[in-house]
From TrEMBL:
This is DSBA-like thioredoxin domain protein. InterPro entries: Rv2466c-like (IPR053977), Thioredoxin-like_sf (IPR036249). It holds the Pfam family Rv2466c-like. The lineage of its organism: Bacteria, Bacillati, Actinomycetota, Actinomycetes, Propionibacteriales. Gene3D superfamilies: Glutaredoxin.
């Protein structure tokens, strides 16, 4: 009699991804990670950081300060969604709000845009109003620092937690698709597995290619 041994599928590698919905570079990297999930045994866990928190107390020019002021409602709403609807709700909300911000050109920082994203997903629409207050700021700051403190200073978003390390990036434009996305992830995974790897960088020559 031949003994049959069942083969088990290995658990997917979990990657932590910290984002602010305001940031187009985080948006591109997040679309890449979702594409990676289709071609590699990887699961992305989304978490909220805040550019508004990051830049508190800094001497910004008026345009940048205005953007930081408008950024609060998106991250507060994202934290509210995570607390009420969990990880799956947050994943869906980020995609919906990011699509409105980065692809449809809807106004960032507008409570009506946030409410529209919530309603489109049948999520608790009261989150939009609650996100105009500081109700969830303690949770927001905790999530922010959990993602950002291990990376170090002078970085923004996206941030990956991968192979036991926290890394800024990757900064990509446009987001690769299919196997190309998988190969890029393979390279990032390989580099970050080496304890001595810290940085690989060149100057950007293009802006965010969002289409």
């Amino acid at each position: 009699m031949v003994s049959m041994t069942a083969t088990s599928t290995p658990a997917p590698q979990t990657i932590g991804f910290w984002f602010d919905p305001l940031c187009p570079w985080a948006w591109l990297a997040s679309r890449w990670m979702l594409e990676v999930e289709t071609v590699r045994p990887v699961r992305t866990e989304f978490h909220v950081m805040s550019l508004s928190v990051l830049n508190e107390g800094r001497d910004l020019d008026p345009a940048d300060q205005d953007e930081m002021d408008r950024g609060w409602i998106g991250v507060r709403a994202a934290i509210g969604v995570e607390r009420i609807h969990g990880q799956e709700g947050l994943r869906a909300f980020y995609t919906e709000l990011g699509t409105r911000y980065h692809l449809k050109g809807e106004t960032k920082g507008d409570a009506a845009v946030v409410r529209g994203a919530l309603e489109a997903l049948d999520l608790d629409a009261s989150i939009a109003e609650r996100a105009t207050t500081d109700e969830w700021d303690e949770a927001l700051r905790a999530s922010h620092h959990a993602g950002m403190d291990p990376v170090g200073s002078d970085v923004g978003t996206p941030v990956l937690h991968i192979n036991g390390k926290a890394m800024f990036g990757p900064v990509i434009s446009p987001a690769p698709r299919g196997e190309e996305a998988g190969r890029l992830f393979d390279g990032v995974n390989l580099m970050t597995a080496y304890d001595g790897f810290f940085e690989l960088k060149r100057s950007r020559t293009v802006g965010p290619i969002l289409d």
